[in-house]
UniProtKB/TrEMBL annotation:
<dbReference type="Pfam" id="PF00583">
    <property type="entry name" value="Acetyltransf_1"/>
</dbReference>
<feature type="region of interest" description="Disordered">
    <location>
        <begin position="1"/>
        <end position="30"/>
    </location>
</feature>
<feature type="compositionally biased region" description="Polar residues">
    <location>
        <begin position="1"/>
        <end position="11"/>
    </location>
</feature>
<protein>
    <recommendedName>
        <fullName>N-acetyltransferase domain-containing protein</fullName>
    </recommendedName>
</protein>
<dbReference type="InterPro" id="IPR000182">
    <property type="entry name" value="GNAT_dom"/>
</dbReference>
<dbReference type="InterPro" id="IPR016181">
    <property type="entry name" value="Acyl_CoA_acyltransferase"/>
</dbReference>
<feature type="domain" description="N-acetyltransferase">
    <location>
        <begin position="70"/>
        <end position="247"/>
    </location>
</feature>
<dbReference type="GO" id="GO:0016747">
    <property type="term" value="F:acyltransferase activity, transferring groups other than amino-acyl groups"/>
</dbReference>
Amino acid sequence: MITDNEGQVLSSRHMEVHRRQPTLPPPSENQAYLGPILQLTIETTWINGKVSVIERPLTYTKRVQSTTDIAIVRATVDDVPAVLRLLDDAVKWLVSHDRTGQWGTSPFSENPKRAERLTEFATTGSGLWLAVKVADLPTVNGEAPVIIGALAVGDKMPYAPSVSEPELYVRLLVTDRRWAGNGIGTRLLEHARDLANEAGISLLRVDCYAGDDGKLIQYYESQGFGRSERLNLEGGWPCQVLAQRLDEVKGE
Ligand SMILES: CC(C)(COP(=O)(O)OP(=O)(O)OC[C@H]1O[C@@H](n2cnc3c(N)ncnc32)[C@H](O)[C@@H]1OP(=O)(O)O)[C@@H](O)C(=O)NCCC(=O)NCCS
């Protein structure tokens, strides 16, 4: 059994490449130093109001996957209002930077179809996932954790061209603007790759707004995606589809 510096159990069984991990501090008596890149799956669950870390083969469904300070947890329909708030904040941020072409100027939450869509994300496909601070995870007093990012993955969007192999499609990615620069989006995309790997899927796709200076496209390129189709959606909305092969990023 291996534990991290906070005493959490890290399973070394059923290991696969999952994510880049910051270098751990030197080992103490009951810790093992695993080097700058860990290849492991960590799972935590709630037992009697406390976080318990459990060892599971990768084929098990994950409820919580945590690393040092951020956990990725599966959302339920109860989390939809909080995700809408994140999206409303993102619109405000975009507007404040004169980037109104992507999502307009009205709050996401104004349109009831958006909540329906998020509910669909939460209940179908590979689900809706949340980034939360581990420090904020519910404790015995039952406080709700603060949601600092959201990811939805599943089938491709209807307008995206079909592909001839199984794929996972990023349908939503948003992070709390107060946490910008902390790589929350990177963590959520890593989680999307994990989900694809576990399902034996080698292709991850996403699409994004392609207008203005193309900065969002550059963001996805910085995350390992490459440009594929350029589309003009309804209302002349410029859309860039991007793809990432997961069988070419082994041993990251
Ligand atoms: C895209 C996003 C999830 C990335 O989160 P992250 O990995 O934590 O990265 P950051 O928030 O630090 O953003 C990375 C860079 O992309 C830029 N960026 C993010 N969203 C952008 C957008 N919609 N349009 C243009 N630039 C954007 C940021 O300004 C930042 O640029 P900088 O490095 O020059 O400061 C997050 O920035 C976000 O929620 N953006 C608004 C919503 C959005 O556009 N989601 C994607 C829909 S396809």
